[in-house]
Amino acid sequence: MTDLSGRVALVTGGTRGIGLATARALAEAGATVVLTGRDEARAKEAAASVGASGLALDVTDAKAVSSLVRGVAKEHGKLDIVVANAGIMEDALLGMIREETVDTTLSTNVAGTLHTVQAAARAMMRKKASPAGDRGSSTASIVVLASIVGEHGSAGQTLYAASKAAVANIARSAAKELGRSGIRVNAVAPGVIETDLTAGLSEDAKAENAGKTPLGRLGRPEEVANAIRFLVSDDASFITGQVLGIDGGLVL
Ligand SMILES: NC(=O)c1ccc[n+]([C@@H]2O[C@H](COP(=O)([O-])OP(=O)(O)OC[C@H]3O[C@@H](n4cnc5c(N)ncnc54)[C@H](OP(=O)(O)O)[C@@H]3O)[C@@H](O)[C@H]2O)c1
Fold first, then answer.
1. Are 238 and 34 spatial neighbours (Cβ–Cβ below 8 Å)?
2. Which ligand 1 atom minimizes the distance to the CA of 16?
3. 60 lines ligand 1 (CB under 6 A)
4. Which residues participate in catalysis according to the annotation?
5. CA pair distance 2, 226, nearest whole angstrom
6. What are phi and psi of 94, to 5 degrees?
7. What is the pLDDT of residue 133?
8. For 44-72, what is each residue's pLDDT tens digit?
9. Protein residue whose Cα sits closest to atom 42 of ligand 1
10. From the alpha carbon of 109, which atom of ligand 1 is closest?
């Protein structure tokens, strides 16, 4: 069993789905976990269900992200793990994409992830994560949520796929930049996982995706959370800049 005791972790968009499952997985491994969501009451309620604490945060607000991340690191004396999970998906064929959706998707998925990684890096560099090791042996680790469609494209998801391609490249570039500070940065690229985000898919679309997947089914949030728990643990101490597909083989 992965041991994250003594680590301090922050999960954005932790009120449900993959974020909540990740907060639970990290807390069960012994980490002190803070999760966030846009509504304070919802964040606190979700946090209570997994033994974490909950705070309100809209990741599109760069100042709020910076101040919340600084505050968490200050309160707990350090910040070891950040999972930039908050994200939205609104599908539309190319000709039907609304300008407003372009703004909300890019500001949440791309700018929100960038703000979170920036703030995490600052906090991790300011207060070296424990044990204050040399380059490469630090406990500081960031995971961002890309998507398999960001790697391979998807009809009806051009905007979302573009945003997730950007997220994967935030991980790759930040990994190159932050490695010298002992901070690892990776992305996970889930396939179709059963959460609120995909609840709107028709039963036919779900069956089609499950049918295309060698494992013959859709994924569960816990299956993404388990991979994230591995990536932030010492078991992944020489892994950085990777985009790990968690899709049951969907794109093979
Ligand atoms: N489910 C999939 O099949 C799948 C596949 C590939 C990638 N992903 C990615 O995985 C991540 C989690 O997805 P999910 O399926 O768990 O989604 P979900 O069930 O819809 O949950 C999304 C989470 O993001 C939060 N959020 C949304 N906008 C936010 C904002 N502006 N500021 C702060 N928090 C915000 C929501 O919190 P509140 O609403 O409480 O504020 C919620 O906790 C997303 O980045 C998604 O793109 C999911």
1. no
2. 43
3. yes
4. 160
5. 10
6. -45, -50
7. 47
8. 999 999 999 999 999 999 999 999 999 99
9. 13
10. 45
Q: Please give the class, per CATH, of domain 8-246.
A: alpha beta
Q: 């069993």: which residue's tokens? A: 1
Question: Nearest to residue 184, comparing CAs of 240, 228, 231?
Answer: 240
State the angle between helix axes of 17-28 and 221-231 in degrees (0 to 180), rounded to the nearest 10: 50
The per-residue pLDDT for range 120-138, each reduced to its tens digit, is 999 999 866 555 445 545 8
Supply 40's token pair: 């304070």
> How far apart (Å, rounded) are the C-alpha atoms in residues 177 and 84?
17
Three-state SS letters, 13-37: CCCCHHHHHHHHHHHHCCCEEEEEE
Given a contact cutoff of 8 angstroms between Cβ atoms, the answer to whether 213 and 250 are in contact is yes
State the DSSP string of 47-114: HHHHT-EEEE--TT-HHHHHHHHHHHHHHHS---EEEE---------GGG--HHHHHHHIIIIIIHHH
First-to-last alpha carbon distance for the chain, in angstroms, is: 29
The domain limits of the chain are 8-246
